[in-house]
Amino acid sequence: LYPRRYVDASRTTPIGELVSGQLATVVGRIRAAAVRRTGRMAIFSAAVDDGTGHIETVFFNQPFLRDSLRPGLTLLIHGEVSRRGRLQIQPQEWWLTGPESGGRIVPVYPATEGLFQKRIRADVRQALGSLRGRIPEILPSAVRTAERLPSRETALRALHLPESSADVDAGRRRMIFEEFFLWELTLALLTRGRRHATGAPPLRPSAGERERALRERLPFELTGAQERVLAELLLDATGTRPASRLLQGDVGSGKTVVAALALARAVDSGCQGALMAPTQILAEQHAATIRGWLDPAGVPVGFLSGAVKGRAREAVLEGLRSGDLPVVVGTHALLQDAVGFRRLGLVVVDEQHRFGVEQRLRLAAKGVSPHVVVMTATPIPRSLALSLYGDLQVSVVDELPRGRKPVRTRLVPESKRAELHGFLRSRMEEGDQVFVVVPLIEDSEALDLQTATAAFERYSRDLFPDVRVGLVHGRLPPEERSRVMNAYRRGDLRILVSTTVVEVGVDVPAANVMVIENAERFGLAQLHQLRGRIGRSDREAWCFLFASPGTAAEGLARLELLRRHADGFRIAEEDLRLRGPGDFFGTQQHGVPRLRLADLALHSAVLERAKAAAFALVDGDPTLSDATLEPLREELRRCYSEAATYYAQG
Fold first, then answer.
1. 85, 98, 67, 3: which is closest to 597 by C-alpha?
2. How far is residue 241 CA from its own chain's centroid?
3. Which among 600, 624, 625 has a CA at the least distance from the CA of 611?
4. How does DSSP classify residue 401?
5. DSSP secondary structure of 435-502
6. CB–CB of 290/260 below 8 Å?
7. Is the CA virtual torsion 552, 558, 560, 562 positive or negative?
8. Whether residue 642 has pLDDT greater than 60
9. Count of CB atoms within 10 A of residue 559's CB?
């Protein structure tokens, strides 16, 4: 628990100098106090005077305060000043002057109804008092000295019982570094084996028969960015030290064909390759796409997911073990103990942020130090990517395929909905398909949102009864989701109503129109990902955003930013700044540090230093065996128990 803000009770404003709208702290003597009633509401007011003027402080539905805020006592109040005939202040915080305030910086904690700040502060003060001299230091002394950081106990006391704003700054600086250090130390421990490993199967330095055959059959030319990125990752993989590379690319930039060419190079080098995707839908699409490229080039491609059973599953497993099956595409099912390879040389993990570091390493552990490429369409600033995925080199596909037109994006008022429906019909008559995306799949009393099922009924029964409409969401069984998605890909369905299961990877060239309901409920980066599902042909594509009635101005401003910009990196940076790392990466993110004070966007320089210190510590002491590091080992177990367990198991 950390304070969410502070009130500087030592900096007060004379009442005579206050102006309406000002957020201020005042101190004065209570001259009069009374309770009056307006309907069912009891209003307690106290007139406060400091010699320069007087002000009325008003408390709603707190008549009991007349027993404690009596005339003659000195009151310190922090709140917003207004003038309603006379000068008033609406207290956000207040104290009777004495030991509890003492002119200090006063912390304000997140609290729920019925839990008061005074009680929280008293409990925190008592806890810190009982722990005096007993809070273990977890940072190595050399790191603390180099970073000029206070001890952990000093920092915690500075955050909870500060005497000045400088105390708060010093305490925050220490704890921000600590949060980043713990995360980077976890990364360093998990990846040390690969960073220092040798014995990887070296890939050919030039294209072989299958890779050349694949290139000859591609119906398009690679962009310069695709060629550059492919050369970077293949150059890494020609040695015996395992390559580890993060392949970033905006939606529609053509990362999949780069992965397919790398897999062909692995097969030409006498190795096997595996591609793992986070969802059944995305894995099936990758399998169909890569099989369409590699099969004609003489490279059989298998598929494995939880839905593959019986003889089909056994045939894939046997082919991988014998080496007769050179490439496999699958979901988390590839991590199962029964999956083994004869000579795994290249691992490709798509949408890395949906997996943990441990899962990536578990797949890599099925070979003898295979080369690893992880792909993501969630653009992350380069410095941030290097620190989040500390063991990976970074390549960026920063060029869209030739002829690709940017998606035209519009924020549509509710009054134009009928007009939009006419536009959808005209585009479908021209051969286009439509995505309709909604944020929830069942009604919620807390949020008045469209639901996938309600939207499906409206589009299929009320708006377009003559059009085939499909419905897909995360709660459908995998087989049913696959059936619906395949029908949409074939063109049997003209409209697909969906939740965000279509966010990544789904590629339907005829889908050139998207409608997103309650768009303000999505993050900017997520909206950009959704928008990337359309516009994958030479047809002009349109994305229409509907915001919920009463959406705040800042929510509409975010949607306007999406309308103006097509650059995923620009959008992602803004989204990270606005929402912070937890929401930015989404609730399914695995492997993002658990941060309470640190901010990935604001404190990137601290993150870099924490990474350097953590990796240096692990390189010097790979098991953290030094006796002085026991408190650090214990904190790692507490904060990142999964990672620590995985490391302990090797």
1. 3
2. 31
3. 600
4. P
5. EEE-SBSS--SS----BHHHHHHIIIIII-TTS-EEEE-TTS-HHHHHHHHHHHHHTS-SEEEE-GGG
6. yes
7. negative
8. no
9. 22
pLDDT at 466: 96
Domains 5-130 and 408-565 share a fold: no
Amino acid identity for residue 110 in this structure: P
Residue 36 has phi, psi (to 5 degrees) of: -130, 155
Q: What average pLDDT does the structure give for the chain?
A: 86
> Does the domain formed by 5-130 have CATH 3.40.50.720?
no
Are 210 and 264 within 8 A, CB to CB?
Answer: yes
Instruction: Write down the residue that tokens 């999956």 correspond to.
Output: 339
Q: Report the sign of the C-alpha dihedral through residues 166, 168, 169, 173, in that order.
A: positive
The amino acid sitting at 181 is: F
**DSSP structural state of residue 398:** -
SS (H, E, C) 161-216: CCCCHHHHHHHHHHHHHHHHHHHHHHHHHHHHHHHCCCCCCCCCCCCCHHHHHHHH
From the list 289, 259, 254, the residue with the least C-alpha distance to 489 is 289
Q: Estimate the crossing angle of helix 152-160 against helix 117-130, to 10 degrees.
A: 160
pLDDT value of residue 310: 95
Torsion, Cα of 618, 620, 622, 625 (10° steps): -110
pLDDT at residue 449 in the model: 45
| The architecture CATH gives domain 209-397 | 3-Layer(aba) Sandwich (3.40)
- Quick one: tokens of 201? 């199967």
532-551 tens-digit pLDDT: 888 888 789 999 999 988 88
Contact criterion met (CB below 8 Å) for 75 and 48: yes
Token reading at 508: 């339907």
In a 13 Å sphere around the CA of 597, the CA atoms on its Cβ side amount to 22
Domain boundaries, the chain: 5-130, 209-397, 408-565
Tell me which of 265-269, 301-305, 371-375 is least confident.
Answer: 371-375
CATH number of 408-565: 3.40.50.300
Which backbone phi and psi does 55 adopt, to 5 degrees? -145, 150
Pair 317, 339: CB distance under 8 Å? yes
- Beta pairing partners, 233: none
